[in-house]
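Operator note (shift B, R.M.): manual run for 6426_t:CDS:1 requested after the automated queue skipped it. Running by hand, logging everything below so the morning shift can see what happened. Input copied straight from the record, untouched. If output looks odd, do not overwrite the archive copy; leave it for review.
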Amino acid sequence: MSMSTNYRSTNRRTASTPKPTIADKFMERVQLDVIDLRTRPDGEYRYIVHARDHFTRFSWAEALTDNKAIDVARFLFKIFTQFGPPEFLQSNNKKEFVAAILHEFKQLWPGVHIINGDARDPRSQGLMTRGNSILKNKLSIWLVDNKRQDWHVGLPLVVRTMNTLVCSATKHSPYYLVFGQHPQHNLALLNMLSDSKFINEEDLPDGILADASESEYQ
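Run finished. Output pasted below as returned.
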């Protein structure tokens, strides 16, 4: 289909300047992308849907069998019912992609209104691109280190790692910015206690878990 270019220049619209998309609070702006892994399928899984809060860099991700709007909407429904819906939802994909998802989301949660965000700002585009790159890189490392191919198993562990590492931009981990406390990391201590046959809380030495938690973040 061709479009005629025979119109007066006075009727032309100039492109509007993109508005800043930098958020200043948690769940103000959530970015969304679907990572295509059809070249590396894991059983029935072919895609990863990845959502990221712009302000805290907190990530959520889930393995999907398809990239239909309803599947992505259900993923967001689980997030937003726990953390609250964002003001803006945006994606590096076409706005029609987000519009279709928001349409399906409204069927799940009719009373909630979310704005289809403007993703033209390169700062917001770069944040999601970097987030996807980090996720895929860490997931590849997990597969190699554990000699596995079922990436849907490693995905939650990779997302947890992303959320608990200190971000150079914010000087805090996403987990800390969201929950106001550091995550539980005493896996080595718990393994040691298990090896020492401490399996019941009442048998633990007094204060050992509290002391370990305090020393970890000093």
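Quick read of the result: Residues 1-14 have pLDDT under 50 and may be disordered. Residues 142 and 154 are 7 Å apart (CA to CA).
Leaving this for review. - R.M.
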